[in-house]
Amino acid sequence: MLFSFVCYAAETLWPGTCEPVTNFTLYYVGEYGPVAGALAMKQELFARGPISCGIDATTEFESYSGGIYSQNLTDVSINHEIAVVGWGLDSSSGTEYWIGRNSWGMYWGEEGFFQMEMYQNNLGIETDCSWGIPSWEKP
């Protein structure tokens, strides 16, 4: 059985008791597969929409507040999952970048989103991605 909990009292939003969330929509994954590399990622985004990618969320990335992020690591250790939702081109610099959505809330980055330089495998973003097709049916 699947349970989801909110650990705040409903009236006060104060930490304390956890209450089960009883009204939620349950989705399944009908099909899925791996994708890696900038070209394959673009093709997948165009064909099926957002993809899930693992990154090495460094202290510097945690402090991101805007602009095109770039941090190329020699030793990547995937420790966080983000969604790549698109890509863009900075007209002033000619830099292509990924548009990503993070799970750290609206106050992080650019209202929960970020831009990361493409083709540099920044934080390992182009190596450990997956696509999935949502389904209402249990596999």
UniProtKB/TrEMBL annotation:
Domain called Peptidase C1A papain C-terminal: residue spans: 8-133
UniProt keyword list: Disulfide bond, Hydrolase, Protease, Zymogen
Organism, as annotated: Reticulomyxa filosa
PROSITE patterns attached to this UniProt entry: THIOL_PROTEASE_ASN (PS00640), THIOL_PROTEASE_HIS (PS00639)
GO molecular function: cysteine-type peptidase activity
Lipoprotein found in the keyword field: no
Taxonomic lineage of the native organism: Eukaryota, Sar, Rhizaria, Retaria, Foraminifera
Record-given protein name: Papain family cysteine protease containing protein
Keyword Protease recorded: yes
